[in-house]
Every structure is written in structure tokens, then in C-alpha cells.
Amino acid sequence: MMDQENFRRYGHEFIDWIADYFEKIEEYPVRSTVQPGDIKNSLPDNPPVNAEEMDKIFADFKEIIIPGITHWQHPGWFAYFPANNSPASVLGELLTAGLGAQCMIWQTSPAAAELEEVVMEWLRQMIGLPKGMVGVIQDTASTATLCALLTARENATDFAANRVGMRQPLTVYTSEEAHSSINKAVKIAGYGIDNLRSIPTDHNFALIPEELEKAIENDLNKGLQPACVVATLGTTSSTAIDPLVPIGEICHRHNLWFHVDAAFGGTAALLDEKRGMLSGAEMIDSFVFNPHKWMLTNFDCSAYFVKNKELLIRTFEIHPEYLKTGHDAVVNNYRDWGIQLGRRFRALKLWFVIRSYGVQGLQEMVREHLRLAELFKGWVEEDSRFELMAPVNFSLVCFRLKKAGVSEEEIARLNTDLLEKVNCSGRVYLTHTSLKGRYAIRMAIGQRTTAEKHVREAWELIRRHAAAL
Ligand code: PLP
User: How much distance in Å is there from the Cα of 129 to the middle of ligand 1?
Assistant: First the structure.
């Protein structure tokens, strides 16, 4: 057990360790090199009966745990999407842990509820969502999308599904490029996966509105009830942008819930020059983006906005006697704005980040990442051995090594080989995807400390290994 004095001592030591980690992170291989079972086999099968010294626990952290960590904050991180953090956010998170407040209702920490209300309004302004939309922090975009689909279900059934369960099938529409969290939400929100329509995309991987309309008409003709459309701003594979205006008009015409998943791309709306993708936003019913991806707020922190908070609250509200307080009529009790009762004080780190960088500081980071992606795209275009696989809408570049006269399988094998060799360098980490059945390497730029030299190093590694293949 740790006494007060040791807590202070180790607290200082751990902050020093994190500061050193930030400074020396490039000394680690980006992707962990351990094999399955390595970490488990280094740990005892049974818990310690007697208290252990923190020195020993910390030594094991460094020796056993760190080798099994993939370094998401490494400037050579180009895999998946980023989940960038920042010193301000880490310190905010530390204070949240220290306070240990469980922020289920206003009364259980008024500052947490009111700060959340204020920072979510700041965020709404920062990304240019319509006035009147209100936000709540969820753990992840997956949860936010589940909330959207549950609210859409109630909206479509006049809140009967909440009372008596689903009596008729409801259908949901999203593009074939949408994230798997939509499939998951459709499964668990009671729609049934057979009632999810996967709408074809155009050559830019964006949803085709005419195909959406056709699918809705088709279901109506079969006597089914369409309930919800999910559009994406920045799809996972290629950051495609679904056109909100025609999709919103279709939703309006058919009285459907319109949810927008901007988990990664939403952060780019900090920039005026990227706001165009939000045109039509006045037709959106709900919207999610992740400050924990590209806005320097350490995982987890997902911003969920709704046009009509009454529909959200009516979907989730509960009124057990033990949670009633005298303030309920005049405050936000966020327990009723989502699935869980207990809530972490996530607004604190977000507040720290926004204040510590200022809107301008955050804009500069996003602009720099967009510039680096354009630079990388230019290099790909100049090298005749490679081809671009999708438009570069944000800071993700999809590309691959070409080879004439061979099958798609052969090209996939060649690029898998290239990717593995590049990643084994330990200097960078990139991942892959499939775009309409064609293999593509993804170069996702978005780490706080990624500079031009890191992007250049990645490209040099790619070229060198490609030459050797
Ligand atoms: N939506 C999109 C477009 C994504 O790219 C991702 C993850 O990368 C998600 C949703 C899921 O995000 P989360 O991990 O916050 O649930």
C-alpha cells in the first residue's frame, strides 16, 4: 500500500518518466515486436497475496509492459487513424483520476456537468455545427452511433419500441464504405443486420444519393419502414466524404433520422477551408466526431451532438428514486444522454487541450498534417512505380506499388510484403485496406510530433524496400 509521501514521490517520478517517454519516443520501434503470449508468459498466473513495493511494480512496467506497447504517440505513426494526445491532455486526465469523481448527474459534480455543457458548446462553434445543436461527451464514436440508432428507432416508432419492443422491422442505410460500428449498432439496437442496406459508392468512394433513394423506395414498396441514414465524413478506408445536402434532402423527404459519422474527419472542420463538407448540416439530426483521434485529447473522448435533445433524453431517461434531486428540472443530468449511468470527467482534459492550444493552435496542427499529406501525395504521383488509390481529402494517402500484367492477388502479395518490410524497420507503422476489392496501403498522418522529416523518412523507406522487391 502506498502512503501519502510515497504517492508524492512516485507521482513526480512517473511524470518525469512520461516526459522522458515523450522526448525519447523515437528510440522505440513504433509497432511492438512481441509475439502472441510473450507478455502473458512473463506475468504470474495468480495475484500477489502480499503488498508489493512500487519500485518493483514500476520496474515490471518498464521491463514487461513497455515491450508490448505499440507507440501510438510516435512521430512515425501512420497506421489506422491517429489517437494523438498532448501534455495538457495527459495532465487533465491525471487530475480527473485524482478527483475520482463519478459524474452521472449534476449533483455528483456540478462542475463536471457544467464544464461539459460549456466545452461542448465551444466545440460546436469551433467546427461550425448549426447553432442550437447540443453536445455530450461519449466514450467512443461507436457508442455515439449506437445512441443515434437507438434514438432513431424511438423516433420512428413514436417511442413504442422502448415500451413494447420492436413490432415491425425498421431499415437503416449507410454506404458500403461506412465503419463497422454502424453494423454493430444495427445489430445491438434491435434492427437486425438483415435490415441494414449497404449503399453503393462512386469512384471517389462516396455514397451515391440516387442509390440511397432507390433502396428506400424498394423497402417502402416491400412494406418495410425506413428509419435512419448514416453518412460519413471521412470514411475509415479512404476518408471519402458523403454528400450531406442530397442525403439530407432524401432524409427530409422520407422523414428519416440523419446521423453523421465524422469520427476522424470532423476535426478538419476546425478549418474554414474544410467547412464545405458540412454544408447541409442544418438537416443533420445527430453528429459524432472524436477529439481522441485528431484533436490532441487522449483516448477516450468522443463528441456527440444532437439537434433535439428531448428525443435523446426521452430515449434514455430513467427516474429511480435514489437518483432524484431538487435540481433535476434546471440542470443537465448526463446519465440520460447516453447508455451508461456512471460517467468519467472527460470534459476536464478537453478543456485543458482547447485552452492550452487555443483554436488557432489546433488549426495550425491540422493544417500542417494536411500539408504533409499533400506533399506525400505529390511524391507518390511523381514516382511511376506507385499509384494513388483514392482522393486525398484530409491527411490520409491511399497508394500502392503497381505491377503491370499480374493479378490483383499478386499485387496484394507484393504490397503486403512491402508493408511488412517497411514496418519491420521499427521507424514507421502503416496499415492497409481494400478499396472496391483493390489492395491499398494507408499513410495516415496525424501525430502531434510528426514533422516533414518523418514523412520523408517513411517515403524513403517505402522506395528503398520497393526497389529491393
Ligand atoms: N467511424 C469511423 C469513420 C472511424 O474511422 C472509426 C474508427 O476509426 C470509428 C467510427 C470508431 O471510432 P471509436 O473507436 O471511437 O468507436
Answer: 20
